[in-house]
Design goal:
Length: about 90
Amino acid sequence: MARKSKSEASHGTQSTEALLKSAALDALDELLYLAKSETTDFKTKYDIYKWLCEMYFGKPTSTSQKADSSDKSLVLAFTGELDKWSK
């Protein structure tokens, strides 16, 4: 792929933080380009989208809580964006 990154022409006076932010945005653009490409295999597309969701929403987590020893029910508690979604 011969796409020019947005940061290639502008590293003259940028701080390290600005360069990293620019590189991260370029990487995101590239990942989305790969995920949307018809030539990218399904597993790679899946991995890209899964990673993007985990970065935005956080990794899915759950906790188990039993009310008492005779209770066979299981309560799942989500955190972060998943908690908002689950309600």
